[in-house]
Give the backbone structure.
Amino acid sequence: QVQLVESGGGLVQPGGSLRLSCAASGRVFSVYPMGWYRQAPGKEREAVAVIGSAGSRTNYAESVKGRFTISRDNAKNMVYLQMNSLKPEDTAVYYCKMQGTSGDYWGQGTQVTVSS
């Protein structure tokens, strides 16, 4: 049974920073690509950033390039999303995803609100 637990969300002012964390258990974490996704009210869930199993390959949505950084620590079964220069349009529930071989696994999400 795979479990993904996100943390680190909250309320931040525009221009501020947050670091999201995702703790994984139940699988050999280091062999699976991981990703961060987000869903704003009334919108579809979208990919924010993904990272390969070894951590050397990353990909970002155009809207967050240069502001967000995804990373992982395979020794700790953790994946992170450093978010800088946050904008109100970054407000959403952020989800962690493990790309498994027989299906994807999702966490419950953490709310990020960017507002003054």
The first strand starts at residue 3 and ends at 7. The two ends are 40 Å apart (CA to CA).
